[in-house]
Amino acid sequence: MKAYCLNKISKVALDTMTGNDVVVEDLAKADSILVRSQAMHDMDLDENILAVARAGAGVNNIPLEKYADKGVVVFNTPGANANAVKELVLCGLLLASRDIIGGNKWVNENKADENIGKTAEKAKSQFAGNEILGKTIAVVGLGVIGVLVANACVALGMNVVGYDPYLSINNAMKLDKKVKYVEKLEDTVSNADFVSVHVPLMDSTKHMINKELFAKFKDNTVVLNFSRDPLVNDADLKDAMANGKVKKYVTDFANPAVANMENVICLPHLGASTEEAEDNCALMAINQVKDYIDNGNITNSVNYPAVNAGVKQADIRVCIHHKNAPGIIASFSSLISAHGGNIVNFVCKSKGDYGYSVLDVDGKVDVESIKNFNGVFRVRVI
């Protein structure tokens, strides 16, 4: 593994790289790229780049299909920063319930008052808030972070309802039994005091929190968005705050619209900004790329399927990035057999339009014949 860092990557994680695994200063000498937030849409990668690993969950800064067509695997690190985000969501929950920010601002403005202690007793009533015990929170999206938030809110004594039409078995098993699962989004939010959004940004989820959904809210609902900015329609949010449907909006994403709205607590994307999260994300990214470089295995890719073929079981391992097309797998087998190769192990998976095959072969392999086959993006021999 010869990694090039587009952003500053955790030293704790980089220090785990030993032997032939190194960080290089010249992109031309790299076989992989480690990135956090650097935009890559205008980058044309050289043929030497095999993988790009995002030390985080979101991959909006990476052209997934463009790189898939070049046989470049893009990894992310789901769950590595989940606890950090969960803790900030809980912080946002409390900030929205108690006027902690207003109280702190008052103290700073009156710090020169020699009798500030006595003055504070008279002023504190203007910063009164509400407790979260017994309140209802709707968790929209029960992925890794959503489950952690839901379970934490149960532990804090809240009534928790959850919605996720794509809830995985693994996440369902981790969900506290006190979380009430609801099948319709509008039913999930209709009686909630708080709505916390934890879904990925896709065409189907953009502006999913909009005027139609706000109309289903009860009055004075608090909305927390620590997932992605465009999930909430800002214009509709402003109207919902004006007509009393939304009491406060807490978000981790600053933009000109929300930054200038009243009753908004806006943070500068601090969700994963902890030393622990940065270490965890970088370490996961490095380990995933290393396994891919050394063994051809793919874990947590966003543009290619997950494939675990273990360690090499024959003379060579052939890794093929290709279109997900009928008959293409049989063609690989025929090409290898025709040149005297014996396939010992064969794993093939697909994800949308893209397929990935790993073949352990004893004997010879005519790599050029596979590279030249229609629908093949990249062939790598280990």
Summary tags:
single chain, alpha/beta, 14 helices, 382 residues, 21% strand, elongated, five-stranded parallel sheet, seven-stranded parallel sheet, 16 strands
How would you describe what is shown here?
By secondary structure, this protein is α/β, with parallel strands linked by helices. It is 31% helix and 21% strand. It is built from 14 helices and 16 strands. The chain has helices at residues 11-14, 64-68, 82-97, 100-109, 116-123, 144-155, 169-174, 185-189, 211-214, 234-242, 256-259, 275-295, 328-338, 367-371; strands at 2-5, 22-23, 32-35, 51-54, 73-75, 136-140, 159-163, 180-181, 194-197, 221-225, 246-251, 264-266, 316-323, 342-351, 354-362, 376-381. Strands 8-7-6-9-10-11-12 form a seven-stranded parallel beta sheet. A five-stranded parallel beta sheet has the order 2-1-3-4-5. The protein has a four-stranded antiparallel beta sheet with strand order 14-15-13-16. It starts with a strand and ends with a strand. The relative contact order is 0.12. The mean pLDDT is 96.
Q: Strand order of the main beta sheet, please?
A: 8-7-6-9-10-11-12
Specify the oligomeric state.
Answer: single chain
Secondary-structure element pattern, one letter each: EHEEEHEHHHEHEHEHEHEHEHEHEHEEHE
The major sheet is characterized as: 7 strands, parallel
The portion of residues assigned to helices is 25-40%
Dominant shape: elongated
Any low-confidence stretches, pLDDT <50, length ≥5?
none
Number of strands: 16
The termini sit apart by: 13 Å
